[in-house]
Amino acid sequence: MKFLIVFVALFAIALARPDIEVVRQDSDVGPESFKFSVETSDGTKREEEGQLKNAGTDNEYIAVHGSFSYVADDGKTYSVVYTADENGFQPKGDHIPVA
């Protein structure tokens, strides 16, 4: 369900800018895992995959890892690689401060 929400939000953003087109889109969604990637004509890219862990238990969660990149208004490309699992959301990128 979370995947669907994120995917719809990304698709809505792409539709909000009619001058930007989706140039590549792939997805594979199953009952216990998903994988998708999308690239738009403005250079934005996103890839993500997730898998259901501890299915049917009180500790059930979706472990996700992925990445996205975009060209900002300053002309630089910013990239983020992330993991989201039982330990929370953990983004990494050259522009993200490290604690």
UniProtKB/TrEMBL annotation:
GO terms for cellular component: chitin-based extracellular matrix. Keywords: Cuticle, Signal. InterPro entries: CHIT_BIND_RR_consensus, Cuticle_Struct_Prot, Insect_cuticle. It holds the Pfam family Chitin_bind_4. PROSITE patterns: CHIT_BIND_RR_1, CHIT_BIND_RR_2. The keyword Transferase does not apply. This is GH15651.
